[in-house]
Structures are given as structure tokens and as C-alpha cells.
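Hi support team,

I submitted a single chain yesterday and got back a structure, but I'm not sure I'm reading the C-alpha cell output correctly. Could someone confirm the output below corresponds to the sequence I sent? I've pasted both exactly as they appear in my results page.

Thanks,
R.
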Amino acid sequence: MSLIDGKAAAAAITEAIASDVAARGIKPGLAVVLVGDNPASKVYVANKTKTANRCGFHSVQHTLPGTTTEAELLSLVDTLNADPAIHGILVQLPLPDGLDSARVISAIKPEKDADGLHVVNAGKLTVGDPTAIVPCTPKGSMHLVKSVLGDDLSSLNAVVIGRSRLVGLPMALLLAKANATATIAHSRTKDIADLCRTADILVAAVGRPEMVRGDWIKPGATVIDVGINRIADPSAPKGSRLVGDVAFAEAAERAAHITPVPGGVGPMTIAMLMQNTLEAALASA
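Hi R., thanks for writing in. Yes, this is the structure output for that exact sequence:
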């Protein structure tokens, strides 16, 4: 079994971005908007801001109270849309109750949609338009897949568990674009374990702790675990620990390549956010 080190891959990508930014003498601008005080969101936003600064970006963080109205949030998005120094906008999800995330994401200019969630970018990805901004998590996951299997996935069967706009659907499209035969599984899929056993590439993005057991894994498969779930563990220093959607120890006995949690897909998501912002800056020049 070979561990796919997303942390090392992400570090290499961000270092290359920083070098490229310095060599070009440009200043990509990334604005991250956080609404409310969700603890996990605070950590994610802090990591994104820190990485943007390390890449030499013009980094702006807007932290708004949980009482922010939708009109106030949309007004901020409009301001960022109009700011020529900002090339990428990310509104951290989930938003507090009462705020329509779809409406807010749709208000971002598609060319500044650093997260790749705007319907225009989703449509471009579907039809294979090369100008599509690809959602960060599937983009990072594909980088990890290709790092061990190469760019051409012809003859390989891929199963993606999860059909979200954020990960599952775009991941299946990216796999199909790389010539894999991609299948999307979800909560209504019959005999899901049997389906997973056919997968040369298995991507778990369902948000259920250790749902994928070891005997779901085809021997020699590549497993990409997108899930990040906190579960109780009295033996851990904090009384809890992070696990993925895959039962790692069991799956590692059968997989040829597997991502850990943490240290797998998570760091790649942030690296791809930086890459999307740099590409948006270059496209706007």
C-alpha cells in the first residue's frame, strides 16, 4: 500500500505558485468572506488566508457577524465584484440559517468564482469548456489520482460515492474527461458495496464516518477519501479525532494507493483555491 501524501503535493503546488507570482511580478487578489462563528469555518478561512499570504497574493478577509442580512452580504459581494484588485472571491460555506447560499454564489461574477460553484462554471465544466473554473476539492482529488495513475485513465472503472455539486458531480465529470468509466453512487444506490468492489478508482465524498469498509475495496484500487468527520475517542488528547468516509486501516490492507485523513485531500483543496485565483488573475490581465 502506498500513501498518497496530499500535504506534500499541496506544498509543492503552493511553492510553485509563489515562485510564478514572484517571477511574473503580479499580485493575484483573493477575498475570503466568513459569516458567523462556525469553528470549523474559522479554521478553514484562517488556513486559506495564511496560504494566500505565503503565495504572495493580495489577501483580504471579511469576517461578518452571524446576524448579517442577505442584502448586506450581497452588497459586499457586489463591492468585491467591482474591485479590480480582487480576482477570486470565496464565500465560506455553510452560511448561517436564513442566508441563501445558492443566491449568494450566483451573485459572484463567474470569472471571480474561485470555488468553481457558480452555475456558469458548472455548465462550462459539463460541456468541457477549458475556461471553466473547477471546484477546488475535485480538482485537487484529480491531481492526486493522476499523480499515481497518470493522466490517461482509459480502461479504469471509477466509482464516486456522493452526488453533490461541490464534489461528487464535478469529480465524476473530471474522471470521465480523463477517460475513466465513471459511475456516481449515492444513498439510493442498490448494492453499493458490490458496486464499489468494481472500482479501480474509488472516491468517497458522502460525509459519513468510515462508511466505506475494507471489504468494499477492490484489491489494488486507488482510494481517494474526501470525507472529514470528527468522532468521539476517549483515548485521544481532545476526546475526539478526525476520520474520513473510509475505514482507513481496513481499506489500506487492500488498496494500492490511499489518501489519509487528515493530510490527504484537505490540503489539496486549499492549493487548488490558490491555483484557481492565479488563473483568474492571469485571465483578467
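A quick pointer for reading it: The chain has a mean pLDDT of 96. Let us know if anything else looks off.

Best,
Support desk
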